[in-house]
Amino acid sequence: MADQHLIATDPDLTPLWQAVHDRLSAGKNPADIATVTVPTLSPNAVAALRSWLDTPTQRRRGRTVVPHTPNGHKVPLRPLLAALDLHVEQLQPLVERAIGRTVVNRRKDRLESAQLRQELWDHAATQLPHLPMLLAHLRAAGLDNDAAPQTRRLVDALSTLTRALPHRRPRTLAKLAHDHAGDPHYFDLATLPGQRLVSAVAELAGRPEPTRPDHVRALLAEYGIIADRLSATILLHQVHPLGDGPIDQRLREATAPVALTLLDLTLSPPRLAPVPLTVVENPSVLEEALARASTLPLACTSGQLRAVDHALLQLAVDQGVPLRYAGDLDTAGLQIAATVHRLYGAELVAMDPTIVHATRTTPSAVSIGALPPAHGSTELGQALHTGGRIVYQEHDAVLDRLLATPEASIPAPKTPDAGARTAHLGPENRCPPERTQD
User: Exposed, middle or buried, 21 (CB in 10 Å: 0-12/13-18/19+)?
Assistant: First the structure.
């Protein structure tokens, strides 16, 4: 009989050992496998198998125990092991050596995975009986073995945290994440656990889940959860307040841009004069305004739309302050500008074809790339594609346009519906693109 090592390493026999490997991986016991069907066997392999297994009588009569079927050649495994002088216990090591992979019992793994999932969902049902919608959402999202520990951690943290709501004494999101999950960043709102927490609080409140970042934080605040009220700021410069609160006083006495937090805008919001407020994307515009001694009322979002930015924009709308918005003429800038215009009715300035044409002689070095679908076919989009370059706010032509004092800067009379220009928009229509939320 041929050497067993040569048999394991014979490439002609590899398809046979692969078929046996598949049967073992499907959960079959080696002793229970009577035959294997091999889809593709070379003539050399068929000849070798028949020489080992067929009797002289079978050969004379043209019969064989390795017949060809529509699905491939059928090989009797037990006679083959006997011919090779192998015990059934030696089959798996031989196959693993021939294929170069350990046999993994997938059927056993599937049964264990199903049991693990059932145990986890049973545990979740006992921990989150007060959040049936969230529990259903977690189950619908599915689960694999690697994610089971993380899902159990999330279930346990949400269970202990939400059972204690609402907090009479407000607590920070980081403190709650530390106490209930062992990590102060675990429930950061940009993470999946943070999003699940928002879903849980919305379910407790019996409301649709909010999407705008300032609405998310307002919901959490109602239940005593303070989410990063101090970590983000919006810059205001030459903004004229009419109130007598502490933030009004800071703005009134300021000789340089003032950074306001979400706490400032929600705890003691200023009362703004009803004159146009120009909101820009980049702090460099405020630096230029300082250098030019511009008296134009300005605010700067620092290139994002976070909760603090939405809070100021909504405050301006509610107080009848006309809004102007300007951003870079690139994909992100156009998306943010469209959101500010849609949600708050802001007039877009220095974001039109004429400003693109004005920068043609001294363009930036950065290619424009793909534009948002809503802008690709517009006159502005065509101008940008023709120019082929991003137009940044730092360009002199843009700064000159932005910092020119508009005629409408004289105090405008308040109109009854000034604070309700976007009240007709439902939450689903008031949500900015996810990429602009913090």
Answer: buried
